[in-house]
TrEMBL record:
PANTHER family reported in the protein's UniProt record: GLYCOSYLTRANSFERASE, GLYCOSYLTRANSFERASE 2-LIKE DOMAIN-CONTAINING PROTEIN
Name of the protein: Glycosyl transferase family A
Keyword tRNA-binding found: no
Domain of life, per lineage: Bacteria
Domain Glycosyltransferase 2-like: start-end pairs: 10-139
Pfam families named in the record: Glycos_transf_2
Organism: Paramesorhizobium deserti
Keywords carried by this UniProt record: Transferase
Molecular function per GO: transferase activity
Coiled-coil parts of chain: none
Amino acid sequence: MVKGSDDSVCVIIAAKNAADTIGAAIASALLEEQVTEVIVVDDGSTDGTNEAARAADDGSGRLRIIRFDVNRGPAHARNQAIASSSAALISILDADDFFIPGRFSHLLANGDWDLAADNIVFVDQQRLAGFNVSAVERFSPEPRFLDLPTFVERNISRRGRQRGELGFLKPVMRRAFLDRHGLRYNEKLRLGEDYDLYTRALAAGARFQIINNCGYGAVVRADSLSGRHRTDDLKQLADADKAILAGGALSGEGREAVRRHERHIRGKYHHRQFLDTKAQQGIAGAMAYCLRNPPALAPVVSGVFTDKLDSFWRVRSKKADPAQAPADLRYLFTGQAEAE
């Protein structure tokens, strides 16, 4: 395959302290014949990530490693890698995840798209030892296209529903489309940077194809970075939604969906800010925060109630099954096209 051809793929891996997993991620990318570049950005790691990445080199000349001495965040790391690459297609791979062999043969079968994503299998960290990709179910592709309202609505988490936000998707993106619309990752974001980019792409008219075939393995960890975000990260994500709304490109259902997402994230921010203020200033200071910010009151009350209810059910669950066996494999999509 000729570097820079229409079906050449650059795989970008932003990594921080991923020495234990980066080798497997790189190996899964280098196995794909469509991949002409693998660019690892070591984003200020303090462990052996750089050395582990170099050890995974297969000698084909496709692997490049960029190192930052200071952590700049995944959005900056990915933008740097995009600027350093030349392939026509950009594919993101998280440093603790992996591709299912043959991923790009399925994903690139139909070329009439600007972004194309496939199904994700979520693998509990406890199941990784001895995990065999042959255990991953095969689904018929059933290609369909995402519209903006559906994508945004499926990124609003709801209590009692297993997490399956479409922001988890790791699509292949056409460089030409990104360049034509001036799209890159928002470097203010350390949470939801994928959601933000895909939403702006859809607002710009992107044809976003998804298929049921499973080509991406996401490792579920109790200490994942997304579970340890700062309170201000929520504010930045809500502000990013606000910026999209202010851009004037949206109308109708799309605009309403982004507005609902902004309110959802803003409510989570107020809840977290209330808890932070309580920890620093006590309950009086936390209540004063609500009085100074009347829109915070409803999400704070709802969040506190939900936290207590969730805590109760977690205690009950542990008493019922203290062993807590690793969960079975689950998928972002079922084997049927989810028209809803």
